[in-house]
Amino acid sequence: MRKIWIALIPLVVAGIGNSAQAKELASNDKYMCSWGAGTAARAQELKLSGVSLYAARQKIQVYKFSKSWMRMMALGITEQTYDSPSRLKPTAVRQSFYEDCVRYKLARK
C-alpha cells in the first residue's frame, strides 16, 4: 500500500502543476485589449477636456478603422466612458481597461 502512495504522489503533484500553469493570451486578444484600452484613454481625454459625447461620436464616425468591428466597439467604449462618473487620468483608464480586458479574456478560456 505504501508503494502505491509513493507512486501516486508524483502524479498528483504533476497534475496540480499542470492545472496551475498560467494560461496564455492569444496575440489577437492582446491586440484587441490594447486597442480598446487606447480607445478608452482617448475617450477619457476628450471627456475631461469638455468635448461632448455627440462631438466624440462624430470624431469616431470620421475616423478610418482597419477592421470592421472597430467602429462599433469604439462607439460603445466611448459611450461607457462618458457614462462613467470617473475623473481618472487617461493613462490610468488605459491601464485599468487593459488589465480588466486581459482578466476577462483569460477567464473565458
Task: Please give a structural write-up.
Helices cover 76% and strands 0% of the residues. The protein has 5 helices and no strands. The chain has one domain. It is globular. It starts with a helix and ends with a helix. It has helices at residues 2-19, 27-48, 53-62, 70-83, 90-108. Helix 3 (53-62) runs antiparallel to helix 4 (70-83). The model is unreliable at 17-21 (pLDDT under 50). It has 109 residues and is an all-alpha fold.
Query: Helix- and strand-based class?
Result: mainly alpha
Radius of gyration: 22 Å
- Overall pLDDT metric: 85
Largest sheet composition: none
Helical coverage, percent range: over 70%
Structure annotation, total helices: 5
Ends: how far apart? 39 Å
Percent of sequence in beta strands = under 5%
Poorly predicted runs: 17-21
Total separate domains = 1
Shape: globular
Task: Count every beta strand, where a strand is a DSSP E run of 2 or more residues.
Answer: 0
SSE order, as H and E? HHHHH
Q: Can you tag this structure with a few keywords?
A:
single chain, 109 residues, mainly alpha, 76% helix
Q: What's the layout of helices and strands?
A:
Elements: H1 2-19, H2 27-48, H3 53-62, H4 70-83, H5 90-108
Helix pairs in contact: 2-4, 2-5, 3-4
Short summary of the structure?
This protein is mostly helical and 109 residues long.
